Amino acid sequence: MKIIELQKKIGTFHLNVNELSIEEKKINGVIGSNGSGKSTLVKLIAGLLKPDNGSIDYGVFNMRDITITAQRPYMLHDSVLNNLTYPLKIRNQKVSNEVISEWLNKCGLLGKEQQFAPSLSSGERQKLSFARALIFKPKVVIIDETMANLDPDSLAIFERTILDIQKTDPITWIIVSHQPGQIFNLCDCIHFMENGGVLCSGSPHDILLNKKNPTIAKYMSSYMIKNE
To answer: Taking the model in full, what pTM does it have?
Structure first.
């Protein structure tokens, strides 16, 4: 997937990504300070926003291959079960009851199939959103801060699921996060954003441990101070 001269203006904010390559079947991390353009970028990739200029070459992918989850996921005003299986219905896909039960169990929602989904706790909604995004076996998964503020056990479920998928049938991930430690441990490559553009891309080691870049050094220092 290649992004060329992508621009989007929202109020006073201006996204301007000259060139960006998303590595296929890799875990791509998008990181940067608040307001740097991370969510705007992934919403453009997901087709939730239309660019003012530029292009996104999806390569072998089409929009039906792509799914996105958010920090505050939208729940259909329906049951947990119908929320989980909605992506299957709109794609005319079927999975076994065992697969459905496996996802419900993984999210700690087994036995809550008929519960009104919007009544779930915020953490449960995030986990349901994650399962809903994966149950139809997409080729590109965008995680826009969905793993933020999760308890350690839930976060471990997310990370283990991602790594298990990559071991057996790898797909393309784009993970937006404010947590450098998580991005460092999970991702194959990182795209660091600042002021609406991509400052640099590379391996987690090369990007996050780059003390010579003042912007990255300041960001990492701020993160360390906040988490002491």
So the answer is: 0.91
The SS3 call for residue 156 is: helix
CB contact set of 147 (below 8 Å; sequence gap of 6+): 126, 155, 158, 159, 175, 177, 179, 182
* Residue 161: both structure tokens together: 């699921």
| Domain boundaries, given as residue ranges, for the chain | 2-75+140-226
* Per-residue pLDDT tens over the stretch 194-204: 999 999 999 99
Distance CA 75, CA 116 (A): 9
At 227, list the tokens: 């988490």
Q: What is the C-alpha separation between 21 and 159, in angstroms, rounded? A: 23
2-75+140-226 CATH fold: Rossmann fold (3.40.50)
At position 29, the amino acid (one-letter code) is: G
CA 97 to CA 44: how far, in whole Å? 34
DSSP 88-152: HHHTT----HHHHHHHHHHTT-TT-TTSBGGGS-HHHHHHHHHHHHHTT--SEEEEESTTTT--H
More confident residue, 146 or 118: 118
For the segment 170-198, what is each residue's pLDDT rounded down to a tens digit?
Answer: 999 999 988 888 888 899 999 999 999 99
